[in-house]
Design a protein that fits this description.
The structure holds three protein chains of three kinds.
Chain A: H1 8-31, H2 48-55, H3 57-90, H4 96-108, H5 111-124, H6 131-154, H7 159-167, H8 172-201, H9 204-209, H10 217-224, H11 231-258
Chain B: H1 2-23, H2 37-40, E1 58-64, H3 70-80, E2 83-89, H4 92-100, E3 108-109, H5 113-121, E4 155-168, E5 191-193, H6 197-207, H7 217-230, E6 234-237, H8 243-247, E7 253-257, H9 258-267, E8 271-274, E9 280-288, H10 296-307, H11 309-318, H12 326-335, H13 337-345, H14 353-358, E10 359-360, H15 369-381
Parallel strand pairs in B: 1-2, 1-3, 5-6, 5-7, 9-10
Antiparallel strand pairs in B: 4-7, 4-8, 4-9
Chain C: H1 16-22, H2 24-54, E1 57-58, E2 64-65, H3 71-75, H4 79-112, H5 115-126, H6 133-144, H7 149-156, H8 170-195, H9 198-206, H10 211-222, H11 224-240, H12 243-249, H13 256-264, H14 270-295
Antiparallel strand pairs in C: 1-2
Classes of the chains: A mainly alpha, B alpha/beta, C mainly alpha.
Chain lengths: 259, 382, 303
Amino acid sequence: MSEKKPSLWLRIYSIIIYGFIYTPIFILIIFSFNTQKLNTHWEGFTLHWYQVLFHDAQILLATRNTLMIAVISTLVATIIGTMAALAMYRYRFPLYNASETVMYIPIVIPEVVMGISLLVFFVMINFTLGLSTITLSHIAFSIPFVALVVRARLHGYDKAIDEAAMDLGANELTTFWRVTLPTIMPGVLAGAMLALTLSLDDYVITYFTAGPGSTTLPLRVYSMVKTAVTPEINALSTLWVLIIFILLVFGQIAQRRKT
Amino acid sequence: MKKIHVLCFVFFSLALILSACSGGKTQAPTLPAQPTNAQLEPTTAQVEPTMVQVKSDTLNLYAWSEYVPQQLLDDFSAKYGIKVNYDTYSSNEEMLAKLQAGASGYDVIIPSDYTVAIMIKQAMLEPLDSTQLSNFSNLDPRFINRDYDPGNKYTIPYQWGTTGLIYDKTLVPSEPKKWADLWDPAYKGRLVFLDDEREVLGMALQVLGYDRNSTNESELNQAEQKLLELKPNILKFDSDAPETAIISGETWAGLVYNGNASLALAEDTNVAYICPTEGCTIWFDNLAIPSGAPHKDAAMLFLNWVLDPQQSILITKEFPYSNPNKAALELLKTDDPTLYESYMAFSGTNPDDAFLAASKPIVDVGEATALYDSLWTDFKSK
Amino acid sequence: MIPGQVIEEPKRKFSIMRLFRENSRAQGLLLISPTNIYLFILIVLPLILVTILSFLSRGTYGQVEFKFNLSNYVRLFDPLYAKVLVFSLLVGFGTTVICILVGYPLAYFIARAPARQRSLLLFLILLPFWTNFIIRIFAWMIILRSGGLLDSLLQWLHITQAPLNLLYSPTAVMIGMVYEFLPFMVLPLYTSLEKIENSLLEAAADLGAPPWKAFLRVTLPLSIPGMIAGTILTFIPAMGMFVVPDILGGAKTILIGNVIRNQFLTARDWPFGAAASMVLMLMTMVLTLYYTRKAGFGEELLV
């Protein structure tokens, strides 16, 4: 069975859309070399901002925090969210409707409200604000995203396959690991990536749940908006994108070598 | 499975790379910085603070970004061995909301005058021990003991400024002298305004001849109607960087802070900044200590440190606001005459007496706040 | 079995493991419990605080006073807020529809791509969104600004003669909104589309269906779960989003997100903000649950 090659129009269309998605990124990258501080006009070429970046301990610290929070919150949310999606799809259990409703709350709640209510809650239970409170909050709003995407993937999943596996002697865990999970993996990955994206750029909720000394990249950048979001941030984003891009390409090559 | 491996590999690599980058650097400045020239010769204005036992080794500063010079913090850390964490917020309201919700741990904040008034009424600020503020006398007497904090019991002024009319001399049809001039249809789509209900509604109230802090419903309704007439002329509302709209030429004039005007002037020498005849705003940002601050002793030390002209001058050198520290400006005359000249020459940093006379502070309107909010919502929705 | 006969069952040791193995309801509960516990503590409890807050009053200086009343809810009946809400719904709706139109072919393309390339293509969509939000929007400002890059390009190609004045217009806002929400539509769509096996489409072709018919009758219906997930993840946040309209639209309009934010920040009327949020959440929740149920989520269990 050969996969039908996508038509030419579809390819052209996709290239255009990728172009649309990447145009601001190219601008952003180019402007990281701009001499003008204000990020509005192109004035001249310089590597100055990269220098500034490497000497800016605050920004580097913020970047590290942001990454850590994003990775941890994504991992936890993906695991919990996938479990939830499986539960909602497969089983009828008491509290089903209530669970579903509660899962939608982080999506429908305005961010300011979630941020402030979490803050008040943490204060009430005397939980010191810091990186941990930020991470906990990020997990909370990521779980529904993962759950929803995985659920979309599960829809129509034929239980017969699972039952066949179990008839052949596999227990629940093996069945899940070897049969179910690989099938829903694109959904799990997609959900995880969305959760990661949300966490990396979150401002409002992070603002309210951050403690003294716990700083993240969005917090720093948003407050820079008042004066000037200098090309230092462009430099940071450029490096970020380039590093990930290179890693992805390596990953792709490594995969190709294996098969 | 392979996809997961790729994913994990990518992110852990990133995490590792970044840890390596920042691992070598300290988290916040603690190491002594190179002493500056300014530090080497103490002037008569610098007085050693009365010896107080400072037990804290950390100070949590919570302020606007790009508002406190790193040098100032480094020097403070070097002198007293206190590590400074500089966290940022992007508006008074955000800071107030967070503190009102119960967040604690911050030692020094920099609220604006009307926020100070609100915080005092809600007992959110620690009273200051004036015996520890030996450098207080460096402040210009015009800027102390103001209505929002009589006797400076809770705050000391940090920087001050105004909100006025900016315009590009080469782009405007004629030089505006009054806010009312901006209603001219020639300005269609050519104005930039702060996205601030108190500033904008206050300006409209002034145009109509009313008190800019009015709580009278009929006056406020008229102000909104007046603003609706102006709306077609406004290209954008922007409280963050309105100067970019002036520099780029997208807009010709607008209502901005003096800081924005200074930044615009730096890029476009045709910029002028005035206080129109109907009036404008004066604001003060202040150093304050929130109640329950964990390191109050370090905070008091810091406040006094900022009042030192050698330190205060750093603020003026780096940021485009007005400095209430008279001794610091005196020092600037000899330390950096060019900067002193330009500081004194620009109405944004050094408004003349007429300007000051026409400027009024924003005062909290208490119960009428809800009215301002619904009028602003209505104005924006049309 | 003789009626009345008591059968002595061999004693089985009660074990938790067996309970979870055999009872599907227990299995379900076990799987959902981490989510439930976690969200209960971090979402439900704070939400209860918000609910209580919505019945309190604002003090003169913006503090919260424990005077219970319904005035905040009554205040919401002002037509002004209905107007703002409707406008926000339109923005959300417009963004979602355009995202579906733009994103569906892209998701389809990725789903049909060789298996090895799919993750890479997905990552490539998300990669731009791992830069900082603010500078992305600033980059759009540079592009859309009057006389900016887009204008320069179009004029150079002689497609237009004068600047388009796109920045600060509704068009600019829509471009920005679609840009920001595209991944949230494409990824869920992809997960559904990727599942569709080629054998189904080949069977349709064998039975004589032209490609467009196969698409309408086979592909599209099977991609509906993805579309639902994508719609929820796009429409609801888009409706509440105000940063993009403020920056790219010049903050000349007001959306429900602005209103609620203002209550907590500038107006310092937390009780009113809480009430507005509760009403908004309730409405959105009802719509979401109705929509998902109607489209089939939850039906799986009836089978």
